[in-house]
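Quick one:
INPUT:
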């Protein structure tokens, strides 16, 4: 090819143009803008291989069924099927999926078609020559156009990756919402069970105090007690009835809470008191962990969602940086255009064009740098949010493990104390039946038994509640979705 040929000259001009445009990129740059935050290392919160020899088995995703209470199973199933909060989370997920579709479309060629028809009067006193000058003519254009952004610097790909990251985060948020809802139902139900046990003890306490009052009245009539003892026994009854009424209020409030959680009509929830031993005190041997699992951060949906938001924010920063580079499009059009609609499709009315279109940011008044600063700040906020959730997750598990172990020791001591009180009560009954003691001694011994029974009910309920909390802290059976390339492509469609 000769250097002085028209083709060589044209390519030389194009090359010089590209070089000139590329040299202008220095006018818009992102130097000095970078993220300050760093994701926390697992070792920093104690999740090191040396500290923890192995990960414990995964939990059952339907962990509530392992408690063996069909009534609880029904409540949780109703809550997961009907609760508006879960529907909101699902709607957010669908909204993010729409963003993925929009971002994906930007990576593909765009094709459009248009038809324009116009009736126009041409001026006599302008530059329009005869015979058009002063005439009224119809004109039309029938045209197809196509464009394809080459995305050489990854702007559109980064936007798509950011949208996929937000989708993954929304999926994890939906799972976290399910976990929170199921745990709230279980905790409220176990509190309702606790109230039933407390009501049994309170009813027996009232009956005992009524018996004591009758005995004191008999002793006063016999001249063995005074009005002081009578007044003391009388004052104990209102207190016992107050305790019963307070427990009934708590019972009603818990039923209201369960009604709301399961989205049932008010007054439609009819709970049946379970048998004392009907609920498994140990829901699953898999929960019997003694240390924080190594894979804890992958078990928790909230931490997973925060990590995906860090990924999405990272891609948003990449997208913001790519906007500093040239935007190169290939454009083409082909169609027909004529004055006079009857000639629109005639030979000679055809037109076409093809070529590149380059847009280069030079002076943006700081807009691009401001956008990058904002996206970088968003990334820092996402990283710090993730770090905070990691710290809270480890502390959460540590707290529940501490409470679980402490409750076992407390229950051991309480059972010993109750056994001693039951023995003392049995001895008091035997002495009374043998005529060696009075019935007040029996009632006093039974008071100690009732106190221990009440404490036992509380500790049993706390054990169940702590177990639910431990299951929640361990992720409740959450597993992260497949993040392979195939799954990513499927999520983008």
């Amino acid at each position: 090819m000769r250097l002085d040929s028209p083709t060589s000259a044209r390519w030389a001009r194009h090359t010089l143009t590209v070089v000139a445009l590329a040299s202008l990129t220095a006018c818009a740059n992102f130097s000095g803008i970078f993220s300050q935050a760093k994701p926390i290392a697992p070792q920093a919160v104690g999740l090191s291989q040396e500290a923890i020899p192995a990960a414990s088995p995964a939990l059952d995703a339907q962990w509530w069924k392992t408690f063996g209470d069909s009534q609880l199973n029904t409540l949780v199933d109703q809550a997961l099927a009907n609760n508006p909060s879960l529907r909101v989370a699902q709607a957010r997920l669908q909204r993010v999926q729409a963003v993925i579709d929009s971002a994906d479309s930007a990576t593909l060629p765009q094709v459009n078609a248009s038809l324009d028809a116009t009736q126009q009067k041409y001026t006599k006193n302008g530059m329009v020559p005869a015979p058009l000058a002063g005439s009224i003519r119809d004109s039309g254009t029938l045209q197809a156009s196509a464009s394809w952004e080459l995305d050489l610097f990854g702007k559109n790909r980064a936007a798509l990756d950011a949208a996929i990251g937000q989708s993954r985060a929304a999926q994890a948020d939906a799972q976290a919402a399910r976990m929170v809802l199921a745990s709230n139902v279980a905790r409220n139900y176990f509190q309702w069970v606790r109230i039933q046990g407390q009501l049994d003890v309170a009813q027996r306490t009232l009956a005992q105090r009524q018996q004591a009052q009758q005995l004191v009245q008999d002793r006063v009539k016999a001249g063995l007690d005074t009005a002081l003892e009578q007044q003391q026994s009388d004052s104990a009854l209102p207190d016992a009835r107050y305790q019963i009424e307070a427990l009934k209020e708590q019972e009603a409030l818990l039923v209201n809470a369960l009604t709301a959680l399961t989205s049932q009509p008010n007054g439609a929830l009819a709970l049946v008191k379970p048998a004392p031993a009907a609920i498994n005190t140990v829901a699953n041997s898999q929960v019997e962990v003694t240390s924080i699992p190594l894979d804890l951060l992958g078990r928790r949906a909230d931490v997973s969602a925060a990590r995906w938001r860090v990924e999405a924010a990272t891609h948003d920063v990449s997208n913001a940086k790519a906007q500093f580079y040239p935007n190169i499009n290939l454009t083409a059009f082909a169609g027909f255009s004529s004055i006079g609609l009857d000639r629109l499709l005639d030979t000679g009315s055809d037109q076409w064009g093809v070529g590149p279109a380059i847009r280069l940011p030079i002076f943006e008044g700081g807009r691009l740098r401001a956008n990058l600063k904002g996206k970088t700040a968003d990334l820092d906020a996402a990283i710090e949010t993730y770090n905070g959730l990691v710290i809270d997750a480890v502390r959460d598990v540590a707290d529940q493990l501490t409470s679980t172990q402490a409750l076992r020791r407390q229950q051991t001591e309480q059972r010993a104390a109750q056994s001693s009180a039951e023995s003392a009560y049995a001895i008091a009954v035997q002495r009374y039946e043998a005529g060696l003691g009075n019935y007040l001694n029996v009632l006093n011994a039974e008071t100690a038994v009732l106190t221990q029974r009440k404490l036992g009910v509380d500790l049993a309920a706390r054990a169940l509640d702590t177990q639910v909390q431990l299951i929640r802290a361990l992720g409740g059976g959450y597993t992260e979705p497949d993040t392979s390339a195939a799954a990513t492509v499927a999520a983008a469609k």
